[in-house]
Every structure is written in structure tokens, then in C-alpha cells.
Amino acid sequence: MDVLVINCGSSSLKYQLINTQTEEVLASGICDRIGIKGGQFSYKPKDGSKTTQNVEMPDHEVAIKLVLNALVNPKDGILKSLDEIKATGHRIVHGGEHFTESALVNDEVIHHIEECADLAPLHNPAHLLGIRACQHLMPNKPMVAVFDTAFHQTMPPRAYIYGLPYEYYEKYKIRRYGFHGTSHSYVSKRTAEFLGIPLENSKIITCHLGNGSSICAIENGKSIDTSMGLTPLEGLVMGTRSGDLDPAIIDYIAQKENLNTKEVINILNKKSGVLGISGLSSDFRDLLAADEEGNLKARFAREVFAYHVAKYIGSYTAALTGVDAITFCAGVGENAKFIRGKIVSHLQFLGITLDEKANLETIGKEGIISTKDSKVKVCVIPTNEELMIARDTRALVAGKHL
To answer: Which residues are Mg(2+)-binding (predicted)?
Structure first.
């Protein structure tokens, strides 16, 4: 079954066409700057060639048309007909408490995604644009919504309830939801498989480290705690997000800078994190280059990031009452050997010893970066959210015999 996986942002659309029998990526690409001047469309079929064109994309429907046309293009298209696409899988950031697993898209599912829009105002409306565009362009194709929050719905109440008047949870569902669930789910399963340990009897901490970062404590294959909260702003210091802070800071900054709450929250989301600390960039590659040139703020920002990751790993080891494996994934986790080394240096009390050579050589690929005698295995497992979406899509569509 060929499944088209779509991940819509407010001004972008990433896509992959995946054969779910072989799990091979047949084609992939991105539509960038949707609704903004200077749009760019890229298409990369499985033969490794890549085409990029500058084209205006006023909305997501135009972007998806470009994707579909590229897939059946006589010159370098991968399909003879769009009939070969059996279903589409959509990444949805927020499913609230309603969705504990992926769901076939229907009017009720769309309604609940809309209800969660105020919890993810930058994401859910964009996802809905992608769903509606597919409904119009491929009206008879089944669609599946795969939720970032679903994997974390196994958290116990003690982990997701905030220390607020309980009525706010009852009235507004203010609680920890967590994100990157599709990534944490894939990586934890692959970690257990890679290490040859039973998932149903395991304690794994997964570290999804990128521009957006989160950590998850996973017991017997189920999320029991995670660092992001009601929104993706809570948790680690990230690329542009502040992560955890004293909530009184919001009012303090608002008064000192003559800003309203919304403006301060915007600063916490878009101008903070390692960007705010370094004053340079949210991209860890830029920080590495600046650090190597002697930029002390760049080094400091990286050290702050690593410290916060290590601190969360320590707390989640306590939550799990032990840990079998710690796994790094996503852009920083898979590639930033300095960051990984800094994090592990804080964890020697767990009996962890870093294999320096393995850490240097394990870039963007699976590997163990702890020594053989390390009491806890430390791994690098490249995440694959698109594959998880394709798997869920295939399972749900096949289950309905569509």
C-alpha cells in the first residue's frame, strides 16, 4: 500500500510517499513559504535526484496539487496514476484528551481537531487546511490523523496535573499533554529492538533534541511522563523557546518592557532559548561554528541546553525508578556529538561511561555510544515520524477494509 504522509505547517508542507509493505520512501519533499512571496517547491524521488522550483503557492491546496502533479509527472514521477495512492496520513500536533490513538478522518474527528485549535493555534489550523485540501483533491481517499499527543495519554494523573485549582482542569482541560509523541513512540520501540530487550519489560528515556526538544520517560512501552506541557513551550531550553521558568517572570517582563501578556509569550516562544541566550542563532550548527571561533555566549548556550537535558534525564530516572537505556534522536540528538558528550558527563552517577570514539563516529545513524561495561546503554536512533504515520495509516485503513 502506498501512503502519502503529509505534515502541514502554517506556511509549509512536508511530504513523503511510503510503500508500507517495504517501508521504502518512494518520494519526498517540501512546499515552503505557502501564502508568502518567494514560494519554493522541492521533489526528491527514490533515485536520489532532486528538483527545486520557485513557484507561488497562495494556499495549501495549490501546494498539494504540486505534490500530486510531481508524483505522476511522466518525466520523474514515481506513480503512473494517483489511484496508486491508497490513503493519506496527516500529522496532527494536538488531539487533547479525546484521542488516545490515531483515527480515520471523518466529520467528528475534524470537529475535535478544531476544538483543540486554541491549544495549538500555530499547528492545528494548518493541519486542517491540509486535510480539507486532500478532501477536495482526492475525495475518495481515506485519511488518517496521527496525533503528537496521543502517545502521552498513558501518563498517570500525578504526572499530567498542574498545581492549579482543580476546577481549571475540569473546565478547560488545563494539564500536561506532551508532544513529539510519534517520535518518542518510534524511537522507544526501535531502541528495545536494537538492544534486544523486551519492550514490555523496559525502562527507556528518549531525548528528542532539535530546534524543538522534549524528553519522555517510557515504561514497558508506555509514556509515563514527558517534558512539554499544555503547549510545546514547557520543558527544555530549546532553539527559540524558553522552556521552564518562573511564571511570575511573564508579568515582570510585561511591566518592565511595557508589553502585554501575548507579546511576552511571543518572546518566550520565538526569541528565547539558545537564540536568546547566545544572541546569535537558534541553529545548533551555527552555535557550534561560533563556539569553535571562541564565541563564549555560543558555548554557554550549548552548555545550558545540555545541562537542562541531563537534569530531566535524572528526574525521569527517578520517575521510572531506574533506566535501561537512554536514546538520543532528532537533529541535535542524532548529530551533535559535543552536546551528547556534555549531557552524558552529568550522568556518571548512573554508572554511565561514554565511549568517546563511538560518540564521535555515530552521526545520523544507529549506534551505541556508551562503553560495554556501562550500567545503562546510551544509544543514538534516528527518528522516523513519517514511517510511524504511514504504519498507523495502513493499519487503520486495512482494518476498515477500505
So the answer is: 7, 385
